[in-house]
Queue: 2 jobs
Job 1
Amino acid sequence: MMEPIQASNPQTIATDGFRLHPEDEAAMREEAGHYEQPQAACIEALKIVQRRHGWVPDEAIPAIARVLGVGPASVEGVATFYSLIFRQPVGRHVVLVCDSSSCFLTGYDQLRQALSDRLGIGFGETTADDRFTLLPACCLGACDGGPAMMIGDDVYGPVTGEDLPGILEGYP
Amino acid sequence: MNSQRQSPVYRSRILQPAPERQPKSHPLTWRLRDDGQVVDLKDYEAKEGYVALRQVLEAGDPQAVIATMKEANVRGRGGAGFSAGLKWSLTMQGPDMPRGYIVCNADEMEPGTFKDRLLMEQQPHLLIEGMVLAAFANNARYGYIFLRGEYVESARVLAQALVEARQAGWLGDDIAGSCFDFDIALHTGAGRYICGEETALLNSLEGHRANPRAKPPFPGQSGAWGKPTVVNNVETLCNVPAVMLRGAEWYQGLSGGRTEDGGTKLYGVSGLVNRPGLWELPIGTSGQEVLELAEGLRDGRRLKAWLPGGASTGFLLPEHLDLPLDFDTVGGEGSRLGTGLITVVTEEQGMVSLIRNLEEFFARESCGWCTPCRDGLPWAVKLLLALERGEGEPGDIELLDKLAADCGPGLTFCAHAPGAAMPLQTALKHFRHEFEQGLRQPGGQAREIPVAEGQT
């Protein structure tokens, strides 16, 4: 296992052409301080990379591993398990469409179809202008507003096909 | 209030207006504001906030807190219904034990459930006070709120409230001059329903894949980083301050003789009803009463079936509407109370399609650790898809029976697959004719569109 780099001895971590931003490295170390073992900050570290790059490229994995003092395989295992860690490029705005039971019973099929028609993409795809990526999501906890969806940090529901142009306009 | 056309931005809300929510009858929601704004520290302190904590710390008797929780019989509001007081009494503590952790399970992801979101977005200090009380009772040194990543608003509100509580001395060293020290960090996840399973949650908290752990040891013996750890749901922890302030007898009395269980419950309804939403009601309120608050089904539809508390509970029928919604009664009907938030299914909505949707969910969200779950659930989905298209083969329904039985309690590593089996089994029992319609035959087709075009 690689030695973690001490906070007192900061140095730029670069792996396979990936350069971890010093601010991101500092943020990861701060997160790691909340736990008995720094590995607990793994998901947060992946999210920190994702916030800057939009997704988590393969080359970022060993860099995160070095900060946290764990093996790259541990980080890779976590990065591939969680659905909100993106391992390929996504659009500027990720649209999460709730496909769970309450939304299914209140018009999910129509909402998904309307979104696909409007954006010209299906689940797992990104529009040609890199603006939107469409993904299914577990129950968003907005069941009294089903069918629901999320764009970035914003939750919408109940959403009909007529609402979509106005909503999507807010995400250039 | 269905006319949300102008602004489809989703806002969490309680549907009872403030005058209906009183301290002695609505311990979870009486402080909530009608305008939906956050009850901040000042507002919370002005409404009996942190009074229970001050009293408990002054009394200085952790065992008395546990005894009161046991006597009040606060049953786990995350869905399992296990006595929180009993869980606390089984948590290891003593001079030879390291101080452990309080982990709040805020990974609300059970389909049909939207209650913890309300408590966290609008009243964060009630949860914080509940966690500090739990920490004192269990001699925990640190707490984590394990929050699902999609709850961005909850994260914002909780982060702010943690700062407020720390500044006011309700977190940190020497809380309220008691020499008790405890602090809380917010830990946000990145998806995956399985994180709500308490041992998977601990693995996720530690930065691993969210596979469940073997029990025993239970988290109370060896949880986060091998330390004694209490994992409680948001709503469970939010009950603690009022129990400490008003006592176990008062809490027991809240159910008004409807049931043996004590307290109130956040009940809710989603699906094609006129007024979907959330209410704080005495535990043991009937499904009928909750559906009446939801003002019945839309456009004169008729009720076919309902899930009492999320996707992993069994289907109940209209004839079950008069039963009290408590853990033991619903459990006795082949279902579970679960989270207590009802999903309604109307006559027009096809059960095969709905079950296919549910099993797709469980198959996708399986962590893959044990075989019945990892391989059995996708197999069930495959059979259901065939039945939905009218291409089922003879024996498919019996195979679904077997798959459901093989995913039952005790046969898998955690409760995920049994949770998937329960709706499947109950649907096969109550609506077998719909599955039979999906067998290959001239014109056979079980699929019915859940919401016909133009009827939303």
Note: Residues 17 and 59 of chain A are 7 Å apart (CA to CA).
Job 2
Amino acid sequence: MSYQTSNPLVGETEFALEGPWATYWIAFLRVVTGWWFFHAGVTKIIENGFAFTYGPSYMKGMTGTALGGIPVWMGNNLAWLIEPGVPLFETLIGLALIAGAFTRLAAFGGVIFMVLFWVGNAGFGHGVVNSDLMGLFLFMTVIVLAAGRYYGLDALLEQTALVKQNPKLRYLLG
Amino acid sequence: MTDTIDKAARALSAGLMLFGIVVLGLVETFTGKPFAPAPITNEAGEVTAMPLISPEIRTGFVLAGLVVLGLYAAYRFVAPLPEDRGVSHETMAD
């Protein structure tokens, strides 16, 4: 419960994060978000292996964005990483979210992808709030709520001696 | 009784939705093209491959899961949880 006398818009706030309905929904969102990326990655692997040549050319076309020259530079110089990395990391991010293992680390990777999709696709015909941004916020939600702790393997990983001795690892798990 | 209904609503709704999205998605993905529930067409617009599982079936499972949650919400409207039950205090994720 939080109560801020300085802010009349914030009264008593109760958020049943550990309540069964909240955990159920957080875990559900995590799994569906994971499936979304797993499907995107594994179908690329099935079709073209680890040679996703569209990736570098997509980034080369990201001119005039808020990211400046970074994506274009990456497209020109990091094709060796992007071509195998897109299908591989999409698949791994998806699997991690489905299993709830290394969830925050994986979701951070998802944020990187979604930033590039949101800015690169530039589908702003109906405003900047579009499905790419919503996908980006889904990954952010997974990170903020430590979604891997609910019906996920991170709940077990965080009980290991290694994590207890290095509690900062929880920023990569959870 | 209340716990049973709550658990049943959660299990059934999540089960239906995840079946439609993930389980049937796995079947669709690993049985060959198309990998998504949409027909593949050639440049002439002719359909060259149809999805194994109709999108009506997959979306139907997801909608059924949402209906379960809606029915649960309606049930809770007429049979609310006790005031002091089911709500706990905020725990910050760290």
Note: The interface with chain A takes residues 6-7, 10, 14, 17-18, 21-22, 25, 29, 35-36, 86-91, 93-94 of chain B (CB under 8 Å).
